[in-house]
Design brief:
The complex is a heterodimer of chains A (192) and B (243). Chain A has 192 residues and is mainly alpha-helical. Chain A is built from nine helices and no strands. In chain A, 41% of the residues are buried. Chain B is mainly α. Chain B contains eleven helices and four strands; from the N terminus they run E-E-H-H-H-H-H-E-E-H-H-H-H-H-H. Classes of the chains: A mainly alpha (192), B mainly alpha (243).
């Protein structure tokens, strides 16, 4: 496990048999020190990891956190036993690392976002293409607890029990935070 | 009970999310379903919550705007040595050490301080360097005499000049590897630093023994090395050949 936090087992990343085979070869090569093979793994996974980082930690920290994930993965490749797909293993490592980072940040900034800020993110209905971006931005502005639960549950498919273990809260708290997040976000969709 | 589309009783706020997620069963599910059927407000809320979850599931993962691999490659030691221009190798091989993660100019702060002091001397400053016995560099060297100190400091300024020249040569040689915006930013920063160095040197002409000015000059010199080094690192990290 990445750290002392109970951690979570994320839903498996859908991966084709071919990509699994390619990953397995590259993982073996990378574990032996082949940086080119590791770069191929990076190229295949960076979008998912960076999106997770962006949503959980915000744009400002996403690049650094993504790099940290891959550096940590490089260091820990020797512990990857292939019991799950590499993408699943990497994602678990990423979630745990970002939860740790998030806990450190929470101590630092104790940030809470008032609803008015989200109200300021009402989408431009004349430009439907901006809707997704507004929604992503709004996720980033959710209160910390609500954001973590929303990202893990509604985007990444974790259960409340898994989230509760990872965040050190009760399942009831996770449910309440999720509902709070949804109520705030529905305004971004022009509802509520 | 439903009166004109409004159900009686409290709205089951939190349970609406559980209902949307299909987490309810048995009596709880029947109760919420009955309420939602009877309550216009809660039915609308359910629609809204479903819209949020649908939008969330439809979010597309996006790659970062900038390539993060160079930074990762640097940190895992996957960057091969950079190809040096011939004249850079000839000029000052002693100040370079090539390692797997790239290459580094190794000038310590005391060395730069000594170099800064030498700048003061060479700038026409008085005999401060020769008179003082407090230089960190000299202390490290074991209390050398004034003339030897000047020689040592002169050596440091030569090392500094060589380091700057080498780094500048590497950047010039690999100019095409950097995007124009980066080049503009680097040049702008270097211009600012050079101005600060020039200003500090002018001030030292009037007050060559001023410890603040000497420290400030050393800082600016180190800053210049750092900017050049970071830019050289960026060039190095972009190298994609076999490691």
């Amino acid at each position: 496990m990445e750290h002392s936090r109970p951690g979570v087992t994320p839903p498996s990343v859908p991966e084709s048999a071919r990509s699994r085979g390619g990953d397995a070869r590259d993982v073996a090569l990378a574990a032996a020190g082949d940086a080119d093979a590791f770069r191929r793994l990076y190229e295949a996974q960076v979008g998912r990891i960076h999106s997770l980082a962006r949503r959980m930690l915000g744009y400002d920290l996403a690049d650094e956190a993504t790099q940290d994930v891959f550096v940590r993965a490089w260091q820990k490749l020797g512990t990857f036993r292939g019991e799950s797909a590499f993408g699943t293993w990497l994602f678990r490592l990423a979630v745990n690392l970002m939860l740790t980072r998030r806990a450190q940040l929470a101590v630092k900034r104790g940030r809470e976002v008032v609803d008015d800020e989200l109200l300021g993110l009402q989408p431009d209905r004349s430009r439907p293409e901006t809707l997704g971006m507004d929604f992503e931005t709004a996720i980033g502005r959710l209160p910390e607890g609500a954001r973590q639960v929303f990202v893990l549950h509604d985007i990444e498919g974790y259960t409340h029990e898994e989230i509760a273990r990872a965040l050190g809260v009760t399942a009831g708290t996770s449910k309440a935070q999720l509902h709070r997040a949804r109520l705030l976000l529905r305004r971004v969709l022009g509802k509520g | 009970m439903n009166v004109g589309g409004f159900a009686t009783g409290p709205h089951p706020e939190l349970e609406l999310s559980a209902y949307v997620d299909g987490e309810l069963a048995g009596e709880a599910l029947a109760r919420i379903e009955a309420h939602v059927l009877a309550c216009d407000a809660c039915r609308a809320s359910v629609d809204d919550l479903r819209a949020v979850t649908t939008t969330a599931r439809a979010l597309v993962d996006a790659r970062p705007a900038t390539d993060l691999w160079p930074g990762i490659a640097r940190r895992i030691g996957a960057v091969p040595p950079l190809e040096f221009p011939q004249h850079a190798r000839r000029q000052a091989p002693a100040v370079m050490r090539i390692r797997r993660a790239g290459w580094r100019i190794s000038l310590s702060w005391p060395q730069l301080l000594a170099a800064a002091a030498c700048v003061a001397v060479l700038s026409g400053g008085a005999v401060w360097w020769g008179l003082t016995s407090q230089s960190a560099t000299i202390r490290e060297a074991g209390g050398l005499g004034g003339s030897v100190q000047a020689t040592a400091a002169d050596y440091e300024i030569q090392r500094y000049d060589s380091a700057v020249a080498d780094l500048q040569a590497v950047l010039d040689h690999n100019h095409d590897r950097l995007d124009p915006e980066t080049v503009r930013t680097v040049e702008s920063n270097l211009a600012i630093i050079d101005a600060a160095i020039a200003q500090a040197r002018r001030a030292l002409l009037a007050d060559p023994s001023n410890p603040y000015l000497n420290g400030h000059l050393a800082d600016q010199m180190k800053r210049k090395i750092r900017v050049l080094q970071q830019t050289a690192d960026a060039v190095t990290a972009d190298y994609t050949g076999p490691s």
